[in-house]
## 1
Amino acid sequence: MRNHLILLALTLILPSLVPAQKKKFVLPPDFVEVSGLYITAPDSIWWHNDGGDRPRLLLTDGRGRVRQRVAIPGIQNRDWEDITADSRGFLYLGDFGNNLNRREDLRIYRYHPRTRQLDSILFKYPDQVAFPPPLPQWNFDAEGFLWFRDSLHIFSKNRVGAGNYYTKHYVLPTQPGKYTAILRDSLLLPKRVVTGAALSPNGHQIALLSYFYRMTFLGLLPKTRTTIWTLSDFPGNQFFKGTLSKTKVKKPPLVPTQYESIGYVNDKRVLIASERTVLFKQKAKQVKLKRVEKLKS
C-alpha cells in the first residue's frame, strides 16, 4: 500500500517538474521549411511551412510533438511567410512572400481554429508602382508580421547581399477587405534582412529575426549570421522610434542555418526555428534576449 501511494505521488508530482517547453528540439518530418510559428501557451505552438506545402497548420506541444494537423480548405499556400494572432483567437497567415517583387495578389488569411471562420485581407504597398520595380528598389518582399492594438504590422525583407538593408514598417487593419497599406517608417539593420517578427506577451517589445549570408573559402561554403533585434519603449505603434537592442544567435561555425520563424516564450526569451537542409535537420531552440547598449533607432 505504501509503495502504491509513493508511485501515485510521483505520478502527480513528476509532470509538474518537467518543463512544458524544451529549450531545444528537433522538429517533426512535417516541418520541411518552417516559416512561421506562434506560441499560444507553453505547451501549445502553431506552425506552418513555406510555399509549396498544403494549406494547413500544425499544432504541437512545447516539445515539438504534433497534436493536430489542421487542413484549411478553399485556399492555397502560395508563399506563407509568417503567422500571428489577435486577442480574440484569430490566427493571421501572411501569404505575402514576394521574392521577385512582382506579386499583385498579396493576401493575409484570417482564420479562427475553433469556429473555422476564414476571411481574407487583400493589400498592396503604397510605394510600389512597378511589378517588378527596378532592381535597386526590390524591397517589397516580406517574411515577418505581428498583431498589435487591432492592427497588423508588416516588416519588409530587403535583398540579401545586394540591398540597402532597410526594413520598412507597413500597417494594415485586421478586418477583411481590400486595402493599401500605410507605410509607417523604415529602419536600417546593417547587413541583415528580416525573416520573422513577434510581439512580447506584455506588449511592450517587438522582436525582428534577421540573417545574412556570404560565401567563404573560395566561394564553396556559405556562412550565415543570425541576429534578433528588439525594440521597446516605443510611442504608440511607432516601433522604430523605440530603443533598439540586438542579440546574436550562436551556432556552430561553418554550419549554414537559416532561421525564419520566431515567437516569444516569455518577455525575456524567444523560440526560433530553422529550415531543413540536405545535411541538417530542422530544429527549434530558445534564445535568451540580451540587453545591450542602446543603438540609434
Note: Residues 51 and 79 are 4 Å apart (CA to CA).
## 2
Amino acid sequence: MNLHHDAFTTLADWRPADPGQRSLREAFLGFMAARPDACLRSCEPGHITASALVLDSTGAEVLLTLHPRVGAWLQLGGHCEETDETLVGAALREAVEESGIDGLTIEPTPLHVDVHPITCSLGLPTRHFDVRFLVTAPAGAQPVRSDESLDLRWWPVHGLPPDPTGTTGLDAMLAAV
C-alpha cells in the first residue's frame, strides 16, 4: 500500500458527524481521485497535509506552534514525505519532529479536515488539504522548539491565543475532541 491509497482509504472510511466535515471529506476524496500526486508537495493545485492536535496527558492543554510563514499559533503538522507510508504516520512524524516529544500516541481516525490557501515551500500559491489527528503527550512531556517554529508552548484549551483572522480552526478541532 502507498501513501495515496492509505490516505484515500483513511478518509473514505471516516464518518464525521458534522455535515460540513462530511462535505469537505467528499471534496478531499474527489481531489485525490483526480490527482495521483495529491499527497506530494509538488502537486501545485494543492496537496494533502497531515496535522496533529497535541493535547497534554490530562487533556487540559494543547501544544501550539507559532508558524513562521502564517504568523499564527497552529497545531503541529505539515507536508507528507515520500517516505511516509500512512497518513497517520505522517501526522505522528510531524508531531515528534516539531515537538521533540517522544512517546506521543495518536488516534488513527481523523479528527477534522480543512482546506486553506497558502504559499508553502514551493513558493507558489496553493492549497493545503489538511487532515488532522488527535495526539496525546505522555505525562510531564516538555516540548523542544524546532527550527520550523518561532515559538512552541502549551496553551489551556479554554484559553487559546488570539486568532484575529478566525482562520486557524483550533476551536473546531477542540470541539471535535
Note: The beta strands are 47-55, 61-66, 73-74, 76-79, 105-106, 112-119, 125-136, 151-156.
## 3
Amino acid sequence: MQAPMPEVAGVTHRQARAGDLDVHVAEAGEGPPVVLLHGSPQHWFEWRRVLPLLAADHRVIAPDLRGCGWTSAPASGYDLDTQTRDVLAILDALGLERATLVTHDYSAFMGWRIAFDHPERLDALVALGAPHPWFRPTAAMAAQLWRVWFQPVLAMPGLGERVARGGRQRVVRSMLDGSRPTFDEAERQSFLAAWRPPERARALSSIYRRLVLPGMAALARGPYNGRHLAVATRIVLAGDDPVIREAGMGPWRGTADDLRTSTAEGAGHYIANDRPDAVAAAVRELTGR
C-alpha cells in the first residue's frame, strides 16, 4: 500500500508522464523555474522547508525520482544513464526548455552529467553536500568510509530489499539520523513509510547497486577531468559534514565559467532540512531574485 502523501501549505501535486515513468510532481509559486532533486532515502518532502521560501518569487518543482515517493517504480532503469534521461524527460514533460537545478546526495550524479553533457538545459546548478566535479577521494576521506556502511548493505540483491522495508527499518532509520537526529518522528515516518512497499524497497536497493556504488567508484577515474563547466554553479557544503569539506576537495582538474563553494554552518547531511535559508540564498544568487 502506498504511503499517505504528506502536506505542505501552498504546494500542489500532479502526475506527469516522462518516458516510461508516471512522475509525481510537487509544485508551488510562479516565476523562473527551479527543479529540486531529492537525495536518499527521501522524496519530494525533503524540500518542505525550501519550497515556501523559493515559491515567493520562483516556480518551484520537486519531482519524485524513479522508484521514489509517488513516482512509478519499474523493475529496471536505476543506472546513471537512465536516471539522467529521466530528469531530462521530466523537464520536457513540464514544458521547461531550461531551469535552475538543485541536487542533493545521489541526484548530484545526474546534476553533473546534465551540466557537462546538456548545458543548454540549465540556467544554473546548485549542488548540496557534493564535492566539485573534478574531486578525487583522499586518504582522509577513505578513513571515514565506515560512515556509509549502509551502502553495500542496501546494494546487495535480496538483502537490501529486506532491510529497507522490514522490521523497524533500522538501516533506513540510521541513514536518516546520520551522525545526529535531524528529523522529528513524524518527519522520519514520512520517509520510512515510502520504502515499505516491496517495489519501493527493490528500487532503493537498485539505486545503490546500479548508481551510487558505481558512481562512487567512477570518481577515482576522474570522469570530468579536463572538461569545462559552462553552467553557473554553486556548491553548498554542510558545516557539520565530517567527510566532505571545502579544504579537502583537492585541485580542480578542469575549468569553469562560474563555480563557487560555500559552507552552511550548523547543517548536517540534510542541508535542506537544517539550513533551508542557505539553499534559497544560493538559488537566488544565481537567479537574481
Note: The mean pLDDT is 95.
## 4
Amino acid sequence: MITSSARTTVFDIDGTLCFDGRTIDRRILAALDACERAGHQLVFASARPVRDLLPVLDGAFPTAMLIGGNGSLVSVDGQVQARAAFEAGELGRLLAEAERFRAGYLADGPWDYAYTGPADHPIRGRVDQGGLARRVELAELPAVVKFLVVDATDLTALAEAGRGLGMTVNHHLDEAIIDFAPGTTNKWEALTSLGIDAYNAFGNDINDLDLLRNARHSVRVGTHPGLDGVARVTVAAEPEAVAAEISRLAEAPGR
C-alpha cells in the first residue's frame, strides 16, 4: 500500500496523454515533469497492460506507479502484480460467448499475450511495441487479466452477454472493440485498493468514468458524451491544451 495524498495525480494514457498510440508529446512530458517537481505523485492508469505502458513512457518518470489492464495489473517500484484475473469458469463462459459471435481477441496475461484477431487490425500496432513479451496460445497464459475483442459478428450483443456474466465491460464504439475485465475491476477500484482515495485525475473515455467521478479535481480530455457532467474541467484533445492544463495543476497551491 502506498501513502494516499491529495497531491497524487492520475493520468490515463491513450487519448489523454498519447494521441498517436506510440509517443507522448514533449510539451506534455515537460508539464508532467513540472507537476512531479511541484510535489505530485504521478500515477499512470491505462487500459493497456503494464508491458505496453513502458514503451510509451520511454523511461520517463521511473518512480511513478502504473495501473494497467483497467485496474487488473499494478506496478509499484517496478514490480508488476496481477491483482485481478478471470476465474477458470468465468473465462470459459466468456470464451463460449466469443465463439458464438466468432470473435477475434487479444487476451493479456500478467506479461505475455494471446491474439486471434486480424493481422492488420490497428490494435496490433499498440501491442508489445517494445518487444518485451511473447505471443503465446491462450492456454499458455498463467492467468488472463484482460480480454479485448477486436472483431465479432455482433459486438453489441457480445458486450451485453459479458455484462450478463457479471464482468466489467467497456464497449468502445469509436474503435469497434470491447474491453472485458474480471468482476468490478476498474482504475478507481485499483487506486482504492492501494489506499489512494484523494487524488486528481485526467481521462478521456468511458473507462475513466469512476476515476474522474471520485477525484477531488477532474479533467476530461476531449468531449466523450459518457463523461458529460462528470469532470470539473474539459480541455481539447490536443497536446498543447493538455500540457497547459497539467501546468496549471502544477502551479495551483494545495492541489
Note: The mean pLDDT is 93.
